[in-house]
Amino acid sequence: MSLKLSVYIATSLDGFIARPDGAIDWLTAPEHTVPGEDFGYQAFIHTVDALVMGRGTYETVLAFGEWPYAKPVFVLSHTLTHIPEQLADKVQLLALSPADTVTYLAERGFQHVYLDGGKTIQGFLRAGLVDELTLSRMPILLGEGIPLFGVTGHDIRFEHLQTQAFPNGLVQSKYRRLGAS
User: Of 31, 99, 125, 129, which has the fewest Cβ atoms less than 10 A away?
Assistant: First the structure.
């Protein structure tokens, strides 16, 4: 029962994944895009067979209008009680801890899961369950917002695998947790 958990996320230079109100408009500002460049997202998404996100990220994605994921999505929430009918076959609610989520997904045959959302990522990091991090730093200081990282209670060591710089100033680095397979 081996399940790989990966994070693929963008942050501001000061470590925020969204503005205080959850807005991510700065990610798609013209000066932060490169025509025809997806910064490795499609190559990454093809390696995963499911996504796990928290309620806040799920609600942000719902606001996009069109559901962007073809893979199964599991939303971690203790407060949501239903999924819109049009997503019933694509989204499932789970009220589980990170460890129990891993067990649940592994027992169902999933092998590589994409973790998204600040609180979700923080919880899985604290539990020592994140195997890989791909961090894209955007050349902008937001000054305040929703941080990617929070209190872990202990050191979590990663090894650097690669870094790539893009013409728009985005710098993307990939790390593997020491001890992860």
Answer: 31
CATH number for 22-127+139-146: choose from 3.30.70.20, 3.40.50.720, 2.40.180.10, 3.40.430.10: 3.40.430.10
Give me the phi and psi of 41, to 5 degrees please.
-65, -50
Interhelix angle 55-62/118-126, nearest 10 degrees: 150
Per-residue pLDDT of the chain (181 residues; tens, 9 = 90+): 589 999 999 999 999 999 999 889 998 888 888 888 889 999 999 999 999 999 999 998 988 888 999 999 999 999 998 899 999 999 999 999 999 999 999 999 999 999 999 999 999 999 999 999 999 999 999 999 999 998 888 889 999 999 999 999 999 999 999 976 6
Q: Are 49 and 71 in contact (CB under 8 A)?
A: yes
